[in-house]
Structure formats: structure tokens, C-alpha cells
Design a protein that fits this description.
two-stranded antiparallel sheet, 228 residues, 6-stranded antiparallel beta sheet, 20% strand, alpha+beta, 8 strands, 5 helices
Amino acid sequence: MPSGFTGLLVLLLAGVPGYLYVFCYERRTPRDALSAGREAVELFAVGALATVAATLVALSLAELWSGLLPLAALGAGWDHVLRHPGQVLASSGLVLSLSAGLCAGLGHLLGSRSAFARRHRVLAGTVWHGVLTDPCVLRRPGGPSVETRRFVAVHLTDGLRVEGYLERVSQHAETAMRDIALSRPIALTPPGGTRQPSSATTVIVPGALVRLIETGPPPGPAPAPPAT
């Protein structure tokens, strides 16, 4: 029972902060796809290091507050733990809170730095997402620059051209899985045909069908939907 409880406690103290690190990092910028093993190692390594740092802080504070588990109690074994469960819970809660906050802040900071740096790099699995979701600035001659919605024209493998405003794009590592959702006004241009507006509210283009993507501010007046 003690060994099982210790393992569960270690898993909690290292796994939760590590997950928060990965979560906060990926909220700021997508990353290269990692294998499940490598991602698990990174998650627990960061979480374990943060937990060690938080434990040192908690042991230092225990010298000032008797409600925390002191350093001397670590050598007393389970007898002290069973006699002072309140200290164990208080110390564990403090360590978990400190390490979780440290990992969340670290993930946010490194993710923000990576989001800035990736403007000058090409990362596998994230190029589409990075380019398409960057702010689109329209520069007007003689006037101020304004931020506008990103216009996207997708050329499909069968020759069809689909135009619209970017709604969402998948950041999947596999190119065939990077679907793109465009919102109205939508325009379709078949191979060798003329550009026609569509009444669709949203169009989802499968990544496997994408041959070429044009993106930027609208090249002219947006296509108007047909009258209903």
C-alpha cells in the first residue's frame, strides 16, 4: 500500500505540471509532431524538474511553518506520515501548486518565444497553421495599415478553385489531414469555367485535395452570395 501510494503521488506531482507545460506551450504556438514516447518523456521530465524545485521551496518554508512536512521527517518513514497526515497533504498541495504554476508559466513563455521565432523558420507540420493564422495586414496607399480577415484561395488537385475567408485550419503533422475551413462569402471556379458565388456558409477543403494555396487580403470586392 505505501509503495502504491508513493507511486501515485509521484505520478500526480510530475504528470500534472508536465501536462500544464505542454498545454500552455501549444496554446501559444503549434509544435513539430512528436512520438508518443518522446512527448511522454518531455512531459514527465519538465514536470519532475519543476516538482523538485517546488519541493525545495516547500522544505524551506517548513522551517518557518509547522504545518508543512519538515526535512527531518523524510527520514522517519511512514510512521511520521501516519501520525501527521495534515503536514503531508499541506506539503503535497503546496508542491503541486508551485510546480503547476511554474510549468504553466514556462510553457507560456517558451511558447510565446517560439511563436515569434517561427516567423523566421520552417517547422514540419506547422507551416500551414503558422502562415494562415498570422494577422493579415492591408496596406492602403497614402492611408494607415489596417488588419483584415485573411482571404484564401485554394486550388484543388482536380482544378477547382475555392475562395473564401479563413475560418479554421488543422495543424495536423500529416499534409493530407490539414483540412481548411473557409467561411462566406464563398466563390467557386471550376476548371476552365467562370467564377461563381456560392450560397454555402462554410466550405471544408480536405487537405488531401489541396494542390496550391493563395492567401492574403481580398484581391478585390468580396464575392457576393447569390440571392435566395
